[in-house]
Amino acid sequence: MYNDIRSELASDIITAISAIGLNAPENIELKPLSGQFAGKWGYACSVSFQLAKQAATNPAQLAERIVAALPTRREVARVEAMNGYINVYLNTSWFANQVIAAVDNEGDYYGNGPTRNERIMVEFSQPNTHKAFHVGHLRNACLGSSVVNILRASGFEVIGANYIGDMGAHVIKSLWCYLRFHKDEEPPHQRGIWLNRVYVEGNARTEYKNEVLALSQRLVRDHAGAKAAAFDYLQEASAHHPDASYLISSLPSKDRPDYGAFADHDLLLGAWARLGEWLPTSDVDTEDRAEYARLDAHMDWWPQVDGWKAEQAALWRQWEARDPDLIALWQRTKAWSMEEFYRIYQQLNVQFDQWFFESEVEVEGVTLTEELIKRGIATDERPTGTVFVKIDEQLRKNPELAAKYARQLNAKNPDGSPKEVWRTIVLLRSDGTSLYGSKDIALARVKLADFHADRLVYCVDVRQSLYFEQVFKLIELLGFPNVDRFTHLGYEMVTMKGGAMSSRKGNVLFYEDIAAGAVDKALSIINEKNPELDDIAKRDIAEQVAFGALRFEMLNKDLNKVIVFDWDTALNFEGQSAPYIQYAHARACRVLEKAAQGERFAPTYSTAVAAQGEQPFAPTYSTGETNLTPPPVGEAGRGSDYDFTILTGEETALLELIGRYPDEIAKAAELYRPVNICIYLFDLADAFNNFYHNCPIIKAETPALTQARLALTHAAKQTLRNGLTVLGIAAPESM
Predict the structure, then answer these.
(1) Which residues are CB-contacts of 587 (< 8 A; sequence separation ≥ 6)?
(2) Exposure of 185 by Cβ count < 10 A (0-12 exposed, 13-18 middle, 19+ buried)?
């Protein structure tokens, strides 16, 4: 709505500048009135300062000339030149009624943009089966689903896609550990979480030698006492054990030393034991002490690690041969993970239109890689090496792409050698099995050929930024269309207090624990605030509040900001949070209910659409349909007869924010930035609360003013609901 009036006013100013004989700039910037004009509804323009030199006059005089040449508009109450600025004051009553009418007529559609002839596929979430859903997955799922919703609200046809990692080393480790140590032990419930524990154990067993040597090296490198203890022991041992000298020289200098030279268990055990004797007298931090204790409890694993790795390699070969018993076990255990994922997505109000699985594009990935080899793009060094692509080198060989990326490809290192920007990507292992890159180019072909996507968005954390640049360049080398319209929507990670999480080590905060804690806390608050509700209603509202709070916590940060997950912050029901916004919505509902005006202000357009068998953009987003375009709103629309001649500052601020909502949706869609809507909704809720506290509604001075403020209350309620909906957050009517 404001984009329309802004563009029209900018056009008027350009016309006026031309009328006085000056060359107008291409863009005229109009900013909302602020500062000493706070509470006024209008815009300020500083173009006079840009043109003063051209006009050979000062900005104040030029502003007066431009104002005198401006045409009149019914939307504008007055225009003034002040200190070089052009201030445009809107016709508050007319414009307020247009805002009210737009919200009232469009209902659940309010804020939606016109239908655009463009299909966008947004891939997000991408959890791995055989691992549990944890707090680190929340940001991706919430971010991606909100981007889908915002793009749909902005008029795009959107396909929300999930790409499940259902194969790979983590699956083999999990299946191996299950068959070797836990066959037929699975619990009846939460089998996905149990399967994650099996994976963690399988990884711990496989990586045991590396972890023991890594901790030994770190202790020896960082602590003189550890170095002395290990050195003394190895000096004693070196008299009768030649490998001791290698261990002495290697431990302090390598981050992850090769354990092949130190495979003698007795030698390592002696050095490890000497470190254990020294540890109680040291100043080693708690984390390293705990790591030593954890590893020391499993020292019997050391001689078995090589055998376990051989068993896993054999299991890989069974997988490649599609052994029917192994495939059946894989499908059964995969289903345990998927059951958990489906339930979690339902709780979080996350829907998908298309599910992709890594196992489905494995063969196509190998085929595409073979095509790259035949075309001389990929280098094949099997069986002793891998299949890889030197991307910079291949781009230089392609005349069109070399010209396109000339700046990057011509960059030099300090020594004058060519700088490798995109480096090398490995597509196949030496045994011919596929890696992520080969499968991602295969999946891109599917998205473009089978789903006819015009634009692809990949919602994956920033650690994969270089990888996606490499994949996009590979796709260009293959000749795929629209690659410039592919976007890696990178975001920073979620960490816990105390450091980063790792599913390999098992130090993660599981989604189940977060969800249960959030619901319990929300329920206690609902009990306190609204004890008269029945238990079923309390539970329902508590879940809406809890999951809304978690989603908002994941969205209310810029993508380049790390989220340090803190239980107290995430479940804080005051301040800039989803519950604060939800409570403003519930408060507006309560006002309308008390005034017995719910029917008077009920949405009309969305009801009429539903009667025709179609659904508006709310509150579910799983159909993948394009949005319907709401009808135009004119002066005769509902709400056009309210008296807003005199507005308080609180009313002006609230109306201005409500009218800005369509522009906020458009901006958030352009930038893939749900945090814009989070900030906007908090401001809107804050403005409504100020209006609620300072402007009597039901007991206003006159019946006409009551009607006007009830209409404004309904418009605020509807806009809050629509904004929460695109974020995937429920808008409860009572709390």
Answers:
(1) 688, 689, 692
(2) exposed
Contacts of 548 (CB under 8 A, 6+ apart): 578, 579, 582, 724, 729, 730
Rounded to whole angstroms, how far apart are CA atoms 442 and 267? 49
Secondary structure class of 207 (helix, strand, coil): coil
For the chain, list the domains and their CATH numbers: 2-90 (3.30.1360.70), 203-308 (no CATH), 364-437 (no CATH), 528-559+566-726 (1.10.730.10)
DSSP strand E in 292-395: where? Answer: 354-357, 379-380, 387-390
- Radius of gyration of the chain from Cα atoms? 32
DSSP per-residue letters across 616-632: -S-S---S-PPPPPPPP
Neighbours of 154 (CB within 10 A): 22
Which residue did the predictor score with more confidence, 130 or 511? 130
Is 572 within 8 Å of 545 (Cβ atoms)?
Answer: no
Task: Give the rounded distance of the alpha carbon of 578 from its chain centre.
Answer: 17
- Name the phi and psi angles at 33, rounded to 5: -60, 140
pLDDT tens sequence across 66-119: 999 999 988 899 999 999 999 999 888 888 998 999 999 999 999 999 999 999
pLDDT for 146-164, tens place per residue? 999 999 999 999 999 999 9
CA 352/CA 339 separation, integer angstroms: 15
CB atoms within 10 A of CB 34: 10
Mind giving me the DSSP string for 437-482?
HHHHHHHHHHHHHHH--SEEEEE--GGGHHHHHHHHHHHHHHT-S-
pTM for the complete prediction? Answer: 0.86
pLDDT tier, 544 (very low <50, low <70, confident <90, very high otherwise): very high
